[in-house]
Amino acid sequence: MQTVTVSASIQYDVIIGSGARKLLAEKIKARFGTPRVCVVSDDRVAALHLAALKDDLRQAEVDCVSYVFPHGEQSKTPETLFDLLAFLAQARLSRKDVLVALGGGVTGDLGGLASALYMRGMHLVQMPTSLLAMVDSSVGGKTAVDLPEGKNLAGVFRQPDLVLCDTDYLATLSEEDFRDGMAEVIKYGVIGDEALFDRVKNGVPRAQMTDVITRCVEMKRDVVNEDEFDTGRRALLNFGHTLGHAIEAGSAFSLSHGKAVAVGMVRIAALAEQTGFCFVPCREEIAAALLQNGLPTDCAFSNAALYEAVTADKKCAGGSITLVLPRRIGVCETKTMPVEELKELLQ
Ligand code: GLY
Question: Does 140 sit in the ligand 1 pocket, CB within 6 Å?
Answer without folding.
Answer: yes
